[in-house]
Amino acid sequence: MSLIQETDFGTPKSKSETMVTLTIDGNQVTVPEGTSIMRAAMEAGTQIPKLCATDMVDAFGSCRLCLIEIEGRAGTPASCTTPAMNGLVVHTQTERLKKLRKGVMELYTSDHPLDCLTCAANGDCELQDMAGAVGLRDVRYGYEGENHVFAKSHGCENDNWMPKDESNPYFTYDPSKCIVCSRCVRACEEVQGTFALTISGRGFDSRVSPGMSESFLGSECVSCGACVQACPTATLTEKSVIEIGQPEHSVVTTCAYCGVGCVFKAEMRGEEVVRMVPWKDGKANRGHSCVKGRFAWGYTTHKERILKPMIRERIEDPWQEVSWDEAFNFAAAKFKGIQQKYGRDSVGGITSSRCTNEETYLVQKLIRGGFGNNNVDTCARVCHSPTGYGLSQTFGTSAGTQDFDSVEDTDVVMIIGANPASAHPVFASRLKKRLRQGAKLIVLDPRRTEMVESPHVKALHLPLMPGTNVAVVTALAHVIVTEGLVNESFVRERCDWSEFEEWAAFVAQEKYSPEATAIMTGVDPKDLREAARIYATGGNGAIYYGLGVTEHSQGSTTVIAIANLAMVTGNIGRPGVGVNPLRGQNNVQGSCDMGSFPHELPGYRHISGDAVREQFEAMWNVKLNKEPGLRIPNMFDAAIEGSFMGLYVQGEDILQSDPNTKHVVAALSAMECVIVHDLFLNETANYAHVFLPGSTFLEKDGTFTNAERRIQRVRKVVTPRNGYADWEVTILLAKAMGFEMHYNHPSEIMDEIAALTPTFTGVSYAKLDELGSVQWPCNEKAPEGTPIMHIGGFVRGKGKFIVTEYVATDERTGPRYPLLLTTGRILSQYNVGAQTRRTENVVWHAEDRLEIHPHDAELRGVRDGDWVRLASRAGETTLRAEITDRVAPGVVYTTFHHPDTQANVITTDFSDWATNCPEYKVTAVQISPSNGPSDWQKAYDEQARHSRRIAPVVEAAE
């Protein structure tokens, strides 16, 4: 194996369809109009020397190394900023150019340390490469006089190099090696959109500076790595490269964090990961990354990772390390005994949205074929199940309508109940770039999120009260209908007109006007009317939404209301528009596609359908139960009632992630056998009887499906440290249960999926390797996938308008609980934090904090940083307060990344009427000063410590 090389063409690709032809070094070259001469030369195979140019950012023209000569023109223009034109005759290598370039390189190297042998970038330094490219062999200028390399030129008495900034846990900044090319500054602005870097000083004092000459850690830098990737020298270098050395081979794979689905090149030395470099051909991320995917992969080798199977009879007992065979036999005997005692339906399983499609498919196959029931569910139950229901009812498919590239054609962006800057940061960067180009932004969120506060972006923020989504979206529809903003031609052509008329009469009622609903929503009617007009008349309108929509008692209703909004304005079925759920976990879309719901087989086909079921029975050689199984909440209730006694949980920490923690504890405690298949002894494992060590995304082959329905390859980078990939573990567990599954490689599992699932018919590893990725549906009608859905018509035929009556949640504020708690995520942490808390990301978010408005804090005598008691009707916990006006009076907010917070001990059992998705986003609470952890937290911590004991291994006597 060797390092996979990517070509840097120096400047971005032109999208023009008009072609121009020019001559470069005697060769005719034809390129799209707007292409730089530098890129045209590169595409023809000629590499012009460059330092400040890279194809991830716009041309800058500062280094003066890429000079060229053009016949008939005076001077030597920069090839990066000079566009190709018809008839130009260009020379890239003449005596004059050679002298100029060598002189430029002499000036760079005269002001740069020449410690190449000991430099971490040795072998991967563009300055070094360009010195060779121009034939530089000597430097006429020494270090005498002013330069920016030595500290003494800045008032110091010693000759030391200028001090490095080591504050960031992942990369170092060495100002003495900065050549002031501005690539990092431009990457921060153009690619990331944070504007955290600048060039400070003048002349020899010029250098890259985070913020106002702050440290990187203390600045607004979000550690996305774009600056490190852009740097042509060792000024910005990953600490892993400094410690390990330059990589010698690489493998392209897909990130296992959020639903964006970024593709990375894992660069290695042997079986050690040196760094993760975002892959420019990744169609979801286009060469960009965030702090999690770029840097937070160290959990793979964390000391707390469990690598050997463990069992115990009771949760009060310490864990006993055993062989794989012993663990499988123990688990199978327990499950068989439970079914014999309580019946076939007394066991079930939960699939993982962090595992691959193939692994998820096998778990639901094991449950249906091996357990003999349909008691299978997945984390989508508690996040995006309303998306599946709402979009399937209105459009006919249960997934987003666009690809991420579509945002480049968007004129109006409406974000509802989502904060892409924190939860989907790489997509957020692409979105912010479009907003800086002039697209308008509307944000519906109780909190003033990072998207509202983005640099150079003006957003219309509608700060609605938690729980009033349906009322606000219906009020937007009211304005569109009553002000004559309906796209009537679209509705008549694509939708059922009689259903539209019924819906339009419903939303036109005065009680759904912005003025009438303001009393419950808290949204200024003028702002709401302006938002409706902008969305309806501003051109291509796209809606992006998240868990702030779905995790409500009316989650499905809100999704339907959003679909209504898109249909009534004609914003479906072309680039730049659509309804786009931002999926939380890396494979939550795939886990749904693979049949993880108790009523659906892979491909969203109901288990009761005889013809569909017979297909699976023939392929699996087993009779399937046609009755839908239990959802996660039903499993918990049945466990407490005594009829559900065994649970297999793969890659999901239900104790920390599911609502009403005390209820989950009671359910798990009642079960006779809980099998946890994961990387760490997570919170659910506190109540488990079998622990099967899992494998990370770096240790397996398979596929993930991201939020845009994009199926992408996951490739094994290192050998599984636990001995098996997760798909192999499930096969061995099934075998112990007496249900044989035979596969030699995950590609064979995908072949079976394709044979049984109409939307995956054309998917194969060969096709994914050839195309890089495909978006389902991928079949005979769309052999290379479907980037945009519903072109020319809806999948269900006619789009269906559905009336969305606003019904207030049963969770109400009152004298005892006057505030509303809502929850969300933060950039540096991921979901329940099992992975990110075991990396240096804890530097940014070491604990969950409660955001509270200054007015509410003053009333309760709470100061910033104080411990506060957070209590609801379900339970109480304590955490520190953060006083901020990001939340409105009457609303408090926290994250849920740390198990010691136990945020879900507060959330209630209320859930979406159609899907049982929990109402995480609306909980009535009270805040009061506290001295520290609650009794519940102390008891929980004590139980967790006791439960995680591992008995010492007794060596057998010789």
UniProtKB/TrEMBL annotation:
Pfam family, one: Molydop_binding
CDD domains, per database record: fer2 (cd00207), MopB_CT_Fdh-Nap-like (cd00508), MopB_Formate-Dh-H (cd02753)
UniProt keyword terms in alphabetical order: 2Fe-2S, 4Fe-4S, Iron, Iron-sulfur, Metal-binding, Oxidoreductase, Repeat
EC number assigned by the record: 1.17.1.9
GO molecular function: formate dehydrogenase (NAD+) activity
Domain 2Fe-2S ferredoxin-type: residue ranges: 18-96
Domain 4Fe-4S ferredoxin-type: 169-200, 212-241
SUPFAM superfamilies per UniProt: 2Fe-2S ferredoxin-like, 4Fe-4S ferredoxins, ADC-like, Formate dehydrogenase/DMSO reductase, domains 1-3
Domain 4Fe-4S His(Cys)3-ligated-type positions: 96-135
Start and end residues of each 4Fe-4S Mo/W bis-MGD-type domain: 248-304
Domain of life: Bacteria
Keyword Iron-sulfur belongs to the record: yes
Cited InterPro entries: 2Fe-2S_ferredoxin-like_sf, 2Fe-2S_ferredoxin-type, 4Fe4S_Fe-S-bd, 4Fe4S_Fe_S_CS, Asp_de-COase-like_dom_sf, Formate_Dh-H_N, Formate_DH_asu, MoPterin_dinucl-bd_dom
Statement: the UniProt record of this protein carries the keyword Iron: yes
Annotated family: In the C-terminal section; belongs to the prokaryotic molybdopterin-containing oxidoreductase family.
Protein name: Formate dehydrogenase subunit alpha
